[in-house]
Specification:
The structure holds two protein chains of two kinds.
Chain A: E1 8-12, H1 13-27, E2 31-35, H2 51-55, E3 60-62, H3 67-79, E4 83-90, H4 98-105, H5 108-111, E5 121-126, H6 141-145, E6 151-153, H7 158-170, E7 175-180, E8 187-191, E9 203-206, E10 211-215, H8 218-232, E11 237-241, E12 244-246, H9 250-260, E13 263-270, H10 275-287, E14 296-300, H11 309-315, H12 319-331
Parallel strand pairs in A: 2-3, 2-4, 4-5, 5-7, 6-7, 10-11, 10-13, 13-14
Antiparallel strand pairs in A: 1-8, 6-12, 9-11
Helix pairs in contact in A: 1-7, 3-4, 8-12, 9-10
Chain B: H1 4-29, H2 44-53, E1 59-61, H3 67-72, H4 77-84, H5 118-132, E2 138-143, H6 150-161, E3 166-172, E4 175-176, E5 179-180, H7 181-184, H8 192-195, E6 201-205, H9 209-224, E7 230-235, H10 255-262, H11 266-276, H12 282-305
The chains are: A alpha/beta, B alpha/beta.
């Protein structure tokens, strides 16, 4: 982690990804990137800006629009010893490549009795908020977390983005790094040196005593806003940012709930059958006797993501919805 | 004409596949083998011809009908048979079975239970070869049926567009499971599909191991010269059903058709070649069969005597973990 003499400076969330990737590519010649528009164009969102210029076309490969073949390219290169990073542009496109992700990447090591490993990182952008409509806005982490063999990483800050990127690229398993597309320009202090943030370790984003809000990705920020507003009314929220939803750090969550006795789980994904259901169930299994109220859940309604900005902003959970869920939990 | 030694080795490998598969079929029939079994019998010339053309560091990727490819690559019959029986001593420690058999030491990157699912992965291995400029070639086996799935088309286009050292070996056995090829594609020759991706291709008699060896050698050389992928359509035939050990009496094809394919049997054909060319006598061929039958019997014995996996291994290898760490 960061040593005191390390110099930090402000970087954007997307810039932090770029820097983490670049630094790993500098230290490891087996790391390359492949995907649509990631070479000369630097990625449709600029995530790969300067990568092709620094490392050449050999290590920044523009591919056809072929999501199955892109992921397959990464798997095949990984099983013979390289450390590929493949880009799927939008999380919705994960579904296009699902056989390669779920039936191949996730399972090869197990099916082969450990004879192969798949050190592959799949980078994609998730989340709503850009009026990108139903096929370019989804939060599909519950689908991915349900598949043993995958790791699902959802950073909420520039600092974590860089450290988690480095950890994904150094991990020997298939990892899926989800960049939230409404956070590209979020700024924060990021160390210049290369560092890891461990996969599977949640962080306490805001300490508090009255209630635990469990979240990840952009909803961490929304939860912190809600916590600030609630503090004016004397409600002291502890906000936990999971950072990775698989592996899932239940210990940090349970420790917090044992202290606060109340919890609300917040995610942008559809509430029904979302990760909130799993997290809530585990809290109740492990800390039932500590709970003073049922665990609350905040998530999107059971519908595709709408296009029109007014509908979309109504669809995506926000601080206001989190506040009312917290109040309901406190009052029950 | 190929060297006598090579012709003899082609024969050995085909016989090893045939006898392994027939033993596996008997075990399956006798309920000693759990799950599914997709036998390779009839198609031996393809695996033997291609695998003998490979260099030791070239990779192969296989299918649900994959035993023949690993046998032809020099796989350990004992570990194969044990895996088919779900035993701890098998190639995958009993985690994979027939459809997921692999041997990374032999650069056999695995069979695959998803039709066409291994093709993009094989192209990825080809990408790694090009990335390292190490002269290796990735060879992928698949059936005619797999060329109807999107993964094939994406991977074929990708390999051609990036000029990767890959050889696509289509084993056209005329059936996608239990459905005739005419029902599933409007073309007669699958190789036509290669042209759409700018990939050279040729049709090879899939019952002629020598012709396959020669075509594969040429395709491998082309890949090693950096000229990109080649497509070989090997016209072959599957004696047994898609799944299981039934040959005759099926509803989806006639017995006459099966018998007529057997008249073109790749092993008989090759044995005639060896005898006619004075390479081996009928007695010598018989001796080879007997010796291989002993190896197969030993493998069966090994599998039967092997322990089942310990249930404590259930969660091993879900993830790659740092040394000493558990899930």
């Amino acid at each position: 982690m960061t040593s005191p003499e390390t110099s930090t400076r402000e970087l954007t969330y997307l810039g932090a990804f770029n820097e983490g990737l670049r630094q790993v590519m500098q230290e490891d010649p087996d790391v390359f990137v492949a995907g649509e528009d990631i070479g000369a164009a630097g990625g449709v969102f600029g995530a790969y800006a300067g990568i092709a210029a620094e490392f050449g076309e050999r290590r920044a490969v523009d591919t056809p629009i072929s999501e199955q073949a892109i992921v397959g390219l990464g798997i095949g290169a990984a099983v013979v010893g390289l450390r590929p990073v493949v880009d799927l542009m939008f999380m919705d496109f994960v579904l296009v490549a699902m056989d390669q992700i779920a039936n191949q990447a996730a399972k090869l090591k197990y099916m082969f009795g450990g004879a192969a490993q798949v050190p592959l990182t799949i980078v994609t952008t998730g989340g709503a908020g850009l009026s990108a409509a139903a096929q370019h806005s989804q939060s599909l982490e519950a689908v991915l977390a349900h598949i043993p063999g995958l790791k699902v990483i959802m950073p909420a800050t520039p600092y974590d983005m860089k450290g988690l990127t480095v950890s994904c690229l150094r991990d020997n398993n298939p990892t899926i790094l989800v960049i939230h597309k409404r956070m590209f320009g979020y700024k924060g202090e990021v160390p210049e040196e290369i560092y890891e943030v461990p996969l599977g370790a949640a962080r306490v984003a805001r300490p508090g005593t009255d209630i635990t809000i469990v979240s990840y990705s952009r909803m961490t920020d929304e939860s912190l806003k809600a916590a600030e507003l609630l503090s004016n009314d004397g409600v002291d929220c502890e906000v936990i940012d999971l950072r990775t939803v698989s592996p899932f750090d239940i210990q940090t969550v349970v420790q917090s709930v044992m202290k606060t006795s109340r919890a609300v789980v917040v995610h942008e994904a559809v509430r029904f059958s979302g990760l909130g259901a799993e997290i809530t169930a585990q809290i109740q299994e492990l800390a039932f006797d500590y709970l003073d109220a049922p665990v609350g859940r905040v998530g999107a309604p059971y519908s595709p993501v709408p296009f029109s900005p007014i509908l979309e902003s109504h669809y995506v959970p926000d601080a206001e919805q989190i506040i009312s869920a917290v109040r309901k939990t406190i009052e029950s | 004409m190929l060297a006598n030694k090579l012709l003899q080795e082609i024969h050995r490998r085909m016989v090893r596949i045939r006898l392994f598969e027939e033993a596996a079929g008997r075990l399956f029939e006798g309920s000693k083998m759990p799950g599914f079994i997709h036998l390779y019998v009839g198609q031996e010339a393809v695996a033997a011809g291609v695998c003998l053309a490979l260099g030791p560091s070239d990779q192969i990727s296989s299918t649900h009908r994959g035993h023949g490819h690993l046998v032809a690559r020099g796989g350990d019959l004992r570990r194969m048979m044990a895996e088919l029986m779900g035993k701890a001593t098998g190639y995958c420690n009993g985690k994979g079975g027939s459809m997921h058999i692999c041997d990374f030491d032999l650069n056999m990157l695995g069979a695959n239970g998803i039709v066409g699912g291994g093709i993009p992965i094989a192209v990825g291995a080809g990408f790694a070869n090009a990335y390292r400029s190490d002269g290796r070639v990735s060879v992928v086996f698949f059936g005619d049926g797999a060329t109807n799935i999107g993964a094939f088309h994406e991977a074929a286009n990708m390999a051609a567009a990036l000029r990767l050292p890959v050889v696509f070996v289509c084993e056209n056995n005329e059936y996608a499971e239990y459905t005739r090829r005419e029902q599933t594609m409007a073309i007669t020759d699958v190789v036509e599909r290669a042209a759409a991706y700018g990939m050279p291709g040729s049709i090879v008699d899939g019952m002629d191991a020598v012709a396959i060896y020669e075509a594969a050698t040429e395709a491998l050389e082309r890949a090693r010269r950096g000229e990109g992928p080649t497509f070989l359509e090997c016209k072959t035939y599957r004696y047994y059903n898609h799944h299981g050990v039934q040959t005759l009496g099926a509803k989806y094809r006639s017995d006459e058709e099966v018998e007529s394919a057997r008249q073109r049997d790749p092993i008989d054909r090759h044995e005639n070649l060896l005898i006619d060319g004075g390479v081996m006598t009928a007695e010598a061929l018989q001796a080879v069969r007997e010796q291989i039958q002993e190896e197969v019997d030993d493998a069966v014995q090994f599998g039967e005597n092997s322990p089942m996996p310990d249930t404590s291994t259930l969660l091993d290898d879900v993830y790659s973990l740092p040394k000493g760490e558990i899930l």
